[in-house]
Amino acid sequence: MLKYYLVVSKVFSQINLICAIIGACILFGVTSIIVVEVIFRAIYGTSMIWVIEISEYLLLFLTFLGAPYLLEKNQHVSIDLIIDIVSKSKKKFLIIFNYSLGIIICGTFTYAGTIVVLDQIETGVKAVTILAPEKYMYTIILPIGMFLLSIQFLDKIVKTIFKIEDV
After folding, report:
1. Is the pTM of this model over 0.70?
2. Contact criterion met (CB below 8 Å) for 48 and 40
3. How far apart are alpha carbons 144 and 90 in whole angstroms?
4. Tell me, what DSSP letter sits at residue 95?
5. What gap in Å lies between CA 114 and CA 123, rounded to an integer?
6. Tell me: the pLDDT tens digits for 134-149?
């Protein structure tokens, strides 16, 4: 059983890494188009109207693609003031409680986000912006990112309970 868990954990770890790499590429792309926009505005005195909108959409993707990887590597923002002052047994309980809360919240957002995205696909609703993309094209990242975060929280719980070290 442990062997299968480790294989599945490794697969999701690779998915998280791929998402993080995509996120890094998105960050580079957003930075690049903003730099080009600034130069274009300085030289020609006009701006490209699509840059801000595209940047906003891409930053949304960056956030939800990078979060599972950061959680996996314990590089996310955490406040461990209480965890640092309690006993070891209470610490384990608080950590598992925290991860469980993460699963519940992320699972709820995964479910609700999926319903919203499916509804947006079905109704064909478009954003009221300059580019007017179909809304699902940028909201689809919410359920995907939250699903990956849910899996990562579950992985953290299993590793905490069974004292499995990250490989």
Report:
1. yes
2. yes
3. 33
4. H
5. 14
6. 999 999 999 999 999 9
